[in-house]
Amino acid sequence: MEYGGTASTDTMYCCGFTPSNRKQQLVVQGVSVPLMEDDLFRRFDTVLHSKPKKDVTVHATVRGRIFYDPQQMGKAVMGGYGHMGCCMLLAIEQVLSVDSKKPKKP
Predict the structure, then answer these.
(1) With 90 as the cut, is the pLDDT of residue 8 above it?
(2) Containing H/E element for 46?
(3) Which of 6, 54, 56, 105 has minimal CB crowding within 10 Å?
(4) pLDDT tens sequence across 74-103
């Protein structure tokens, strides 16, 4: 998962972190992916980066694009997205709703 626009999820991959903010809007496979950076997005991002992460459950409805290259699926060395070039990428364009809850203590 990655954010559109110039924001970044600060996700750690095998070779480091994605930059905190891009200078230009996200472009994947020649498609420019915008991001609506409104209050819902900021709340979603804040909850995802809250500490400690294991104590929060996030439910969100997002609008975005999924990118993948069907020719790369199943190959030993993949040219897709994610860890080690695997699989697909969800690029978020807008957060439509977000709800977070701390789990109940037993």
Answers:
(1) no
(2) helix 39-48
(3) 105
(4) 555 556 676 666 678 889 999 999 997 765
Contact 96, 61 (CB under 8 A): yes
In the predicted structure, residue 19 carries a pLDDT above the cut 70: no
Say what the pTM is: 0.77
Cβ contacts of 92 within 8 Å, gap of 6 or more: 1, 2, 3, 4, 35, 62, 63, 64
Separation between Cα atoms, residue 86 and residue 84, nearest integer Å: 6
Phi, psi values for residue 37, rounded to 5°: -95, 70
Check: CB of residue 47 under 8 Å from CB of residue 101: no
With beta carbons less than 8 A apart as the criterion, state whether 103 and 55 touch.
Answer: yes
Half-sphere exposure of 49 (CA within 13 A, CB side): 12
Q: What whole-number distance in Å separates Cα of residue 74 and Cα of residue 71?
A: 8
